Amino acid sequence: MERAKRGKVLQMEKNNKKSNQPHNDESKEAEGAGDVDPQQRDVSIDDDGSSLESTSYSESIGSASSIPCQDELAKLAEIVIDFDINFNKDKSERKEEVKEVLKAEIALRNTSGGVIRINSTQKPAVKDRDDWMKDLYEKRKTLLGSECGEKDSIGDILDIKTNGAMTYIFVRKSSVTILTDDSHLRQRSEGRNYKVSLYSRICELLNRKKRRCVCANNPKFHTSFRLGETLSYETMTEEHKLLNPIRNENLANNLCTKLSDNVVAFANTQGGTVYFGIEDKHSFIKGQKIEDNEEKDNILLSIVECMERKLWALDSGEKVKPKAGEDYHIKFFPVDGAGDNTYVIAVHICAFPGTAVFKKEPECSVLDQENQTVKMEFKEWLSLHKPTSVGDENDQKKLKRQTCGRTVYYTVKDTIEDIYSDLIEGSPGTLKIRPKHAMHSRNRSLQTFFSCLNKMFEENKWEGITFIERCWGVNIGLPNTKPAEVIRDILVCSPSIPLLLVSLCKGEATSESLKYNIKLATKLKGILAQEGGCMEKFYVKPITLACSEEDDIGILDEMISHASVYPHAYRMSNEKYQAIIKALVPVLAKVNSSFKGFVGNHLFHLLTKEQYEILFENFESPKLMITGPPGSGKTVLAIERIHRLRRQGFSFKEVLFVCSNEVLEAKVRHIKVTNLDGKPEPLCLTYNYFGIISYLRIKHALAGVKHIVIDECQHFKQNPPTPQSTGGRYWWEILMDWCDNKNPPSLWIFSDSSQRIFKGPCVLDSLPDGFSHRQLSTVIRTTVKIHRFICERFMKNGPLIQLGHNLEGEDVKVLVPNQPEEEEEEEHLVTLVYLLISLLKDMVNKGVDPDTIGVLFTDRGEKAFYRKLFDEHTEHCRVKDGRAVSEHGIVFDTIRDFCGEDKDIIIGFCPHFDPNSGFQNNEALMVSLCSRAKLKLILILEDDQVANSFGLADCLKKTDIPFVKDEVINFRG
Question: Which residue numbers delimit the Schlafen GTPase-like domain (predicted)?
Fold first, then answer.
């Protein structure tokens, strides 16, 4: 982000305050007085506007308070931006200060809200302070296109408190996705140019379908001009300007200043022409005097530079340079009767086919990680207004709320509703505890705290819920920086008391634990607003509590009291409580792993209710077995557990992930996390099936490992004993013995018996006692048609498996190439490869991203054989192995090696079952293959006989090959 000079931003735990010297970055380009959104020109000022004469401006926003605030601010979980301002300055002198304060306000509204603290450097008169606030109001209205931006009123967003020389502006998060200080966008309406300010108007402009220019790429100019005659009046696509001589400014510069807004406005609508030399009011033709050819050349050059100074942006955010004769045209027409060197200068701007044209990069104030006010990067800003420009539209359909018959659907919104319903359910006098097992904690301090808290809830007939964590930062993406004396972090939620974040300490609380607690509470409030979408005026009260094992807690009354520094509007209520609990769900259930694909802006993956309950209610479980059908999210849950273990403070060497194949191993090894030093490091120790067997040959290999996660465990066989160095024992015995020692690591195992494709004994057959069992039952990966195909064809005798959405998707295709009777076996194999080539080329030609396609073979021998044939008959088609996670291209891999992975499109190439191959049966083989597909599944079978062996003869389609034999297919052609 580009850093801007702003008021010093402080976390509330800091006691020092620094003054601010505003920086003048006013645009040099003049803005017209009427240059506002045409649909926002008659915006009212709410009810407050009528009372400005009789009531102070501050009071029209929020009641003033005489309660001292400055001493209490250091105890609050807020972001504060400080300014030193002289309210007594003249209106012209305070312009920059007003602008800087407004930028700070917008930055807070674009992030999580906070407080602007203004220290008056001189004792302000009430009228002067009110006049200053009125200037701030007017500037806000001008900049944002309405009183307070879209959807919000001043009363919704701002509360003001004053105390002597101090003025406090409490700022709430904006209801719209993003507020823009200045979009630098213009559009044409009613024959005039207007600013585009509101979020919805910006989105409408940027997402407009391809614009058609009025000129149809062949501009038609007025060509005959006679002095004193009248040209047709201005229209949507035509504007007239007469440039009068300006001292110390040449014609070229003057022309470009007047042209600037028209370039942007015409390019963003349907194109248009500006005629210089025509009086704009009555359209009299007068012409512009051009001294000589040198001045004419200067005008041409200036117009080109004016065009190139603008930001011409494509949908991707890439900036391009406009082309003369394509994006704009320039003509000089002599004016008859005006003498030599008098011209009408015509500049035609074509409608831009890209996203939009900007005068310059939009200015959008936000706070960075250090809570400094900065300018948002252009591509990030663009993505927030073009949510469909990135991401998979099919995934977005899945994320919409679905209802269908008796089936429970766990899409994002349903996940929120399902988990919310469980959390919000309560009764008077009851304080719910999550996770449930925390109520059985043996920690005396924790027991004492909850005993006192429960007693208070019972006596007052309150209801609420607490969330207990060793470190609450785990839930909000913070690394574990918890001081040693902090035992637990406890979030207490109730409609009857403020939202409390308590750091319970053993012994005395130190300054470190105080800072830790405030930082955590500040981050939590921001996350609830930004990711949870809580638009209420609320606060998180940070509490650092020293609690002994014997003594009662005597400060609960003070702890639960309202923080008087906040305005009355910030008090808790039942409605706010419900909104906060609902906002907590996406915070608690968010999938933090980069493992899941990106699904579009403001849509992020959530754990299903099943996944959420398994993770949170069993997080401390030492031995847990999780089973579930393919596509139910076992691997996602496994990786999410590891992420949260890391954020609890465990190093990557203390967490071991074991999987069955090299592809998943490579993908997990590729995941990096940032350590406390800000450097990337591996997520965890990662080994595949053969790798862990070799690793266990090392003496004390597992020393230091505190948590083990095993995925796809159904593929792990009881291999022959390991070398003599391990006592000749099976590798699984060594692992299980380690998990039963005096200080055993936790062990979570994920498996699915329906995907067990190998014959012979599995390690799960000899699983020791002591494991709890949890079940995932809802598939969330595949479409309805793929899910139905798998269940009806290959899992007929299994239990009924629910699907977590109702995205129908495409029919599964089962293809066999038409085979001439005289075709030799070798020719037939080439024909099969040509069928694959034709499918892939068609997809690529239609714009399908090669990275979303996977082709799976029965074994590595067949993969190598068909890959060689494929390479011999294609050019410029990027293909890669599944293990090459950092490369781009179509994946060619085996069914076995790709277990645990998925792609949007899966092509199963010549799968076949051989009783002597080691596979358990053809159903397990096909379940493992077909369940890798998220959106589209195609099976290319060798012949009718193979189709019959899989029970697919009834859905078989014979296909002709569109290529000539031995032809090399160019994927760029």
Answer: 446-571
In 10 A of CB 200, how many CB atoms?
13
Cis peptide before 586 (omega within 30 of 0): no
Q: What is the residue-wise DSSP string for 664-702?
A: HHHHHHH-EEE-TTS-EEESSEEE-HHHHHHHTTSTTTT
- For 814-866, write each residue's pLDDT tens digit: 999 887 777 788 888 999 999 999 999 999 988 888 999 999 999 999 999 99
Residue 461, pLDDT > 80, answer: yes
> Does one domain contain both 643 and 515?
no
Confidence of residue 552 (pLDDT cuts 50, 70, 90): low
Sheet holding 655-658, edge to edge: 685-687, 655-658, 707-710, 746-751, 623-627, 772-775
Distance CA 940, CA 812 (A): 11
Contact 571, 614 (CB under 8 A): no
691 within a domain of the structure (yes/no) = yes
The DSSP bridge pattern shows strands 933-940 and 813-817 to be parallel
Residue 526: inside a domain, yes or no? yes
**Alpha-carbon span 184 to 260, nearest angstrom:** 11
Average the pLDDT over 273-285 and give the result. Answer: 92
Q: Total structural domains in the chain?
A: 5
Q: What residues are paired with 938 via a beta bridge?
A: 813, 907
What's the burial of 750, exposed, middle or buried (CB within 10 Å: 0-12/13-18/19+)? buried
Q: Quick: pLDDT tens for 138-149.
A: 999 888 877 787
∠ CA 273-275-278 to the nearest 5 degrees? Answer: 145
Same domain, 214 and 167: no
Dist CA 561 CA 75 (whole Å): 14
Q: Using CA atoms, how far apart are residues 431 and 454, in angstroms rounded to an integer? A: 6
Whether 50 is covered by a domain: the verdict is no
* Alpha carbon distance 108, 102 (integer Å): 10
Give the mean model confidence (pLDDT) for residues 564-583. 94
Report yes or no: 780 and 611 within 8 Å, Cβ to Cβ. Answer: no
Does 915 fall in a domain? yes
Considering the domain architecture, whether residues 115 and 234 belong to the same structural domain is answered as no
Rounded CA separation 899/243 (Å):
72
- Let me know whether 545 and 653 are in one domain: no
Residues 194 and 322 reside in one and the same domain = yes
Q: Which of 566, 588, 610 is the last residue of a domain?
A: 588
Q: Which of 593, 591, 574, 592 is nearest to 582 (CA)?
A: 574
Residue 265 · residue 314 · CB < 8 Å: no
Strands 311-313 and 356-358: antiparallel
Whether 835 and 940 have beta carbons less than 8 Å apart is answered as yes
Domain that holds residue 212: 186-358
| pLDDT at residue 973 in the model | 63
Percent of all residues in the chain with a pLDDT value above 70, rounded to a whole number: 84
Rg, C-alpha atoms of the chain: 34
- How far is 856 from 863, CA to CA, in rounded Å? 8
Range from 479-488, 566-575, 662-671, 797-806 carrying the lowest mean pLDDT: 797-806
699-721 pLDDT, tens digit per residue, is: 788 888 999 999 988 888 776 55
Angle value at C-alpha 633, between 630 and 635, nearest 5 degrees: 95
CB 751 within 8 A of CB 712: yes
- 442, two tokens: 């043996």
> What is the Cα–Cα distance from 711 to 715, expressed in whole angstroms?
9
Predicted TM-score (pTM) of this structure: 0.79
The residue with tokens 């117009």 is: 303
* Segment 299-327, tens digit of pLDDT: 999 999 999 999 999 887 889 999 999 99
Residue 126 has pLDDT above 80, yes or no: yes
Residues 745, 806 within the same domain: no
| Cα–Cα dist 120/514, whole Å | 30
Q: Which of 256, 233, 237, 260 has the alpha carbon at shortest distance from 246?
A: 256
pLDDT of residue 29: 37
Residue 7 has pLDDT above 90, yes or no: no
Token digits of residue 60: 């029209």
State residue 560's pLDDT score: 85
